[in-house]
From TrEMBL:
Chain ranges of the Ras-GEF domain: 3-249
Protein's UniProt name: RasGEF domain containing protein
Cross-referenced SUPFAM superfamilies: Ras GEF (SSF48366)
An annotated GO cellular component: plasma membrane
SMART domains the record matches: RasGEF
InterPro entries referenced in this protein's UniProt entry, alphabetically: Ras-like_GEF, Ras_GEF_dom_sf, RASGEF_cat_dom, RASGEF_cat_dom_sf
Source organism of this protein record: Acanthamoeba castellanii (strain ATCC 30010 / Neff)
Keywords for this protein: Guanine-nucleotide releasing factor
Entry annotated with the keyword Protein biosynthesis: no
Pfam families to which the protein is assigned, alphabetical: RasGEF
Entry's Gene Ontology molecular function annotations: guanyl-nucleotide exchange factor activity
Keyword Repressor attached: no
Biological process terms in GO annotation: Ras protein signal transduction
Length: 284
């Protein structure tokens, strides 16, 4: 079992790299929601969110057939989310937090009850931080002034950009700051307007990305967090990097059909399917 800080740091490295590769144009005009591959790199990051969540759920469900074995894995992922927060990697923290809140994991009542008090408190803190009340106010208050390096919540950025685009359709251009471009006016070409308020809102939203990625993460950061955890993981860095790249996981349908049954046969079948998926992804 890898240490939480190890997992969090390598998740952070991967997410940081993927975010850094996205050209700014992919964030404009809701390109990620359109067909035709206009936002391929952004789409890849969107798909990875669910992949990480389902990988975490799979890891918890298939870690043995008893509460004694599964509860420590549940505690591990709670600690991973906490380590991600310490690294200011809000994207991965939310990926894991979402996994913890999926019904297949929430149904593990005995495993949740068996958690150490510290794990229960960390999970409670995660619930407060990612609370959706007042448009995720707690998260937004932090990201507004956070210093680099940091990885913001992609879902919040896309949600804000979508809202700007949708509201633009309802704007009365007469009452809003704008400039008229009269290119081709002599030939009867229709005038075009640039809406400064909209451009400013888009700039302010994307400036969060610019600020968060001004500085890269360093190995010293994981050492600091690992020292605070006081834990050492098992397995090599290469194994962990491979796992977090391919994210071996069970299909969504199989995960949601899992009833928390403690029978060995059920878990044995899940683990067998998990190994098959992992083997196939390793070949890919």
């Amino acid at each position: 079992m890898f240490a939480p800080a190890q997992i969090a740091f390598h998740l952070t490295q991967i997410e940081f790299q993927l975010f850094s590769e996205i050209p700014q144009r992919e964030y404009l005009h809701n390109a990620w929601s359109k067909k035709g591959g206009e936002a391929k790199k952004l789409g890849k990051l969107i798909e990875r969110f669910n992949a990480v969540s389902f990988w975490a759920v799979t890891s918890i469900l298939t870690h043995g057939h008893s509460t004694k074995k599964r509860s420590p894995m549940l505690a591990l992922f709670i600690a991973v989310a906490d380590s991600c927060l310490k690294l200011q990697n809000y994207q991965s923290a939310m990926q894991i937090f979402s996994a913890l809140n999926m019904s297949p994991v929430q149904r593990l009542k005995d495993e949740w009850k068996a958690l150490p008090k510290r794990s229960q408190q960390i999970y409670a803190d995660l619930q407060v931080f990612f609370a959706s009340e007042n448009n995720f106010r707690n998260y937004r208050n932090v990201i507004r002034t956070v210093a680099a390096p940091a990885i913001p919540l992609l879902s919040m950025i896309l949600s804000d950009l979508t809202m700007i685009e949708e509201n633009d359709n309802n704007i009365d251009i007469k009452d809003s700051p704008a400039v008229t471009i009269e290119a081709g006016a002599a030939s009867g070409t229709e005038e075009k307007l640039i809406h400064f308020e909209k451009m400013t809102m888009i700039y302010e939203t994307l400036s969060v990305l610019k600020r968060c990625f001004e500085v890269s993460y360093s190995e010293a950061m994981i050492e600091s967090i690992a020292a605070g955890e006081g834990t050492k993981g098992e397995g090599t860095t290469e194994e962990l990097q491979w796992m977090l790249k391919v994210l071996p996981r069970l299909p969504e349908k199989e995960l949601y059909e899992f009833k928390g049954d403690s029978k060995k046969k059920v878990v044995k079948e899940l683990k067998k399917a998990y190994k098959t998926v992992a083997k196939e992804r390793k070949k890919a």
